[in-house]
Write the structure tokens for this entry.
Amino acid sequence: MLLKYCGFIFVCMMLPACGDVMDAVCQSVSCISGHEKEDTSSDTIAPDIMITSPVNLAVVTLPVSVTVDATDDRAVDRVEYLINDDAFSISTNPPFSLTIDKGDLNDGLYKIQAVAYDTSENSWTAISAINIVTAESADPTLDIVTMEQSLDLYTIAIRATHDSGIARVVFEIFATNNPIDPASRQFNDFVSQSVDVDPDLYEIVINVCTDLQDPVTGHGLRITVDANNDASVVVTQDINVVRTDCPA
Ligand SMILES: [Ca+2]
């Protein structure tokens, strides 16, 4: 109250109902209280910052988001991120988070430093550690995209992926004349490399007249996809191979 009413303090002390009078006076003059006064003093208070996610020493897979809680008595200007003491990224907009994408870092243990700056360049650092590991799905994916015959050529194309990479794709076409005894089937193995235009696409083109050992019976198809980490997936199904265009 004393600060707020400034020069009216002596008048007030000599009047009854002082509070009411002073409130009325205050409405009619330009009153400046300590709180309302613009603070032009220098900013010496550093921001606060803590890394809220991931928790310290968390095991993570990429991409991963690093989130922080950064506050300042005036304003947070930016958060600078260092990874293993090297500058990595600067975030200038709330919530000042960081995304580490696939390919940014290899597997391993990393120190993350998040340094919050206020508009007066005061700073404070939060430190955390993350352990990056590569996520590997249990089995490769295998999707058949083409199974078609044109005259005596039969084309089979699949799309196969795995986090560890694809080691090989094997196409086997076998006669189904003795399905009870798989050991008696005759396989023609075709090991395929990925097609250049699409690294996930694997394709074979066989000549149904010359590549197949059994010219008469129906045929089955078995596709085996082996990943670099020895994970594997197998798909077997019948295929409709037509041999009527073969030369006599
Ligand atoms: Ca400050």
Remarks:
- The chain has a mean pLDDT of 79.
- The CA atoms of residues 59 and 209 lie 55 Å apart.
- The pocket of calcium ion is lined by residues 43, 45, 47, 72-74, 118, 120, 122 (CB under 6 Å).
